[in-house]
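Annex B. Sample input.
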Amino acid sequence: MGMAALMLLSGCSGQPGTLGQSERGAEQGAHDASASSPSPGQWASNPLIWADVPDPSVIRVGDTYYMSSTTMHMNPGLPIMKSHNLVDWELLGYAYDTLSDGNESTLSQGEQSYGQGSWASSLRYHQGRFYVSTFANHTGKTYIFSTDDIENGDWERATIDELFHDASLVFDQGRVFLIYGNDDIHLVELNAEATAVKPDGLRTTLIEKASSIAGDEFWVPSEGAQLTRKDGMYYLNLISWPAGGMRTQLVYRAEQLTGPYEGRIVLEDRGIAQGGLIDTPDGDWYAFLFRDFGAVGRIPYLVPVQWRDGWPEYGIDGKVPERLPIVATGDGLNNLVASDDFDYASEADLKLAWQWNHNPNDNGWSVTEPPGYLTLTHQRVDSGLLDTRNTLTQRTFGPESRATAALDVSELRSGDRAGLAALQANYGFVGVEQKDSGRALVMVSGNAEQEQVQARIPLTQSIVYLQIRADFEGQRDQASFWYSLDQEQWTRIGEPLAMEYTLPHFMGYRFALFSYATEQTGGRAAFDYYRVE
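Annex B, continued. Sample output.
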């Protein structure tokens, strides 16, 4: 196995040395995960990020960590993040603006890609170049993006016309592979550029019925492959979800990439599972995993790992600790969420925290016309919120979060609705409904099958202030809806929404700015600001 490939699979940098060795003598500081002995009051805490950041894939290059994650049908997609200590993460950008342009991706002709889009990714660094793979069920394809500059460069895309589920990208001894599958875990060889399946390359099954070490019946068989190499051994992380049990972390190991593999359960604690192993410059090891946590989504946890007899032991006495001896410098959210006054020189400057629900229609939105506003102009007639393009979203977050928006509805037309939503399959929103007879404040709850106006209050002014308060403490998962006419006195409207994480959308709730037409095109909503706290 080549040195660059060895260091890639361990998340190590391009410095020579034995896989997993500490980079002894390197300058250490507060940024290193094990560089100091902080007092407990300074320690980082789990969850690292109380927001939807699922399917993490983490590597280390020198003393810097990079992570990719999943955002499904949102665009831009496949977020890339950076950290110096494994706990404080900065969003750098996305691997793509849009993944595909069919009806499913544009919410056209009654089609949609909710819960589809890009799934579990695999981030790698090899011979000076970064690679990240993903796949999409709605296109049936696998995608590999690459760049020489992960922080500022553009990503090149390669498309493979096969779907490799939850694949781990592997560079090994001058060859390139994907390890993938559900229950049965397979390997397929790619070409040297990692842009296509290699003709006549190796295809084999590595592990049959990988779930079997965790039980007999499963809600989710083994998947989520992530491969690491340490001290000459290959370690393959997988998860399974035994029926009646919890999401469980498995590790299989082998002396050769092609096996044979032996496996064991390494963690059963509150369903914290799926992810991979990562080492620090000082030689400590962690597993970067996530936990299903109700309506807020799937939230990341950092798990200490010790090695015994060639096996990783996850947690402390089999449990994931609440505190970590790592100095945390932020609140875990950093720029994953952001308030916005929409003061931009161009649309290209939109803050990274924002993602569109499906592909945007660039003719229907602006942050420069007029300056200082997000304007959403109706390009078509839609039946409801879930069918609406140009819905702009950010993550909700726990334990409690609040989003406030200022909305100018003076240019809405009859049949138009605009406002602030708690977006998932079962949604709720507070907004303004325009009719020929006048306008009204409304609070609406609904799903793909039905929609119900919970409250309607006549409105005579054209500027209104909207607010959603989301409570995820103890998985209460409740959202309440508020309005103000003067930014000072707030009044609750309608009924609280019992937020529910659903598989059709497969992501945590989003705060969403929206506007749509039900009768005619041409109307426009203008958002003056969005504030999150």
